Amino acid sequence: MALNLKQFIKRAKEYVEVEAHTKVRHVVFAERFLMLGREDVVLSVITTDKKDPEWWVVGGSTPMNLYAKSHFHSADEAFTMHTGLMLRMTADDFERSEIAPKDIGYDAFISHASEDKKTLVRPLATAIQKMGFRVWFDEFELRIGDSLRQSIDRGLVNSRYGIVILSPAFFSKNWPQYELNGLTARELEGHKVILPVWHNVTRQDVVSFSPSLADKVAVVTKGRSIKTVATDIARSL
Q1: Which of 89, 93, 136, 173 is deepest in the core (most CB within 10 A)?
Q2: Active site residue 179
Q3: What does the angle CA 114 – CA 120 – CA 124 come to, to the nearest 5 degrees?
Q4: pLDDT tens across 18-46, in order?
């Protein structure tokens, strides 16, 4: 059962007095945040502590925690810190290492329809990878239990380019178009991101789907080997 704000403030007061070993003088609501399907509030707390008399308390959908105003100067800063801490605590794939990585992120994200995986995408991803590039391809990256949307979003954000396999199957699917929308949003920032590959489609097919995509120079697969297509793509990577 959800707490009302008065109950939450009462709990926050008790929490601060226990955790900060001080007495609370005053507690007021500061801000409310909705993010990632969660609702949290930030309270402003004044205590009798001489060193750190003022605190933020953040909680709601996430466990309650307190942050000194001497370090976090706004409710937004406290919420941002709190959210990062909660994500780190609950992430299944969190890793920490003092060993510096050779590369960060991916050279390319491959957006495709599953129907094209066996005949084109899997061998193409393998060929590009053998050329020394790091490719985000679902079979290379996804593990049992992974969140599909979160994994794809991470791949989209951390890839320099997006190789988009435009095909009849691609045009009919929702997930590939979701990925394309993410890549298009990045291009709006003024950087070339999308590398289109035409697979069993004509220019008119692409124009009907997206006139802006049809205007981009593309790699055409018809009558060409996987190695040749991979080499053409690699030139842009």
Answers
A1: 136
A2: yes
A3: 115
A4: 998 999 999 999 999 998 788 999 999 99
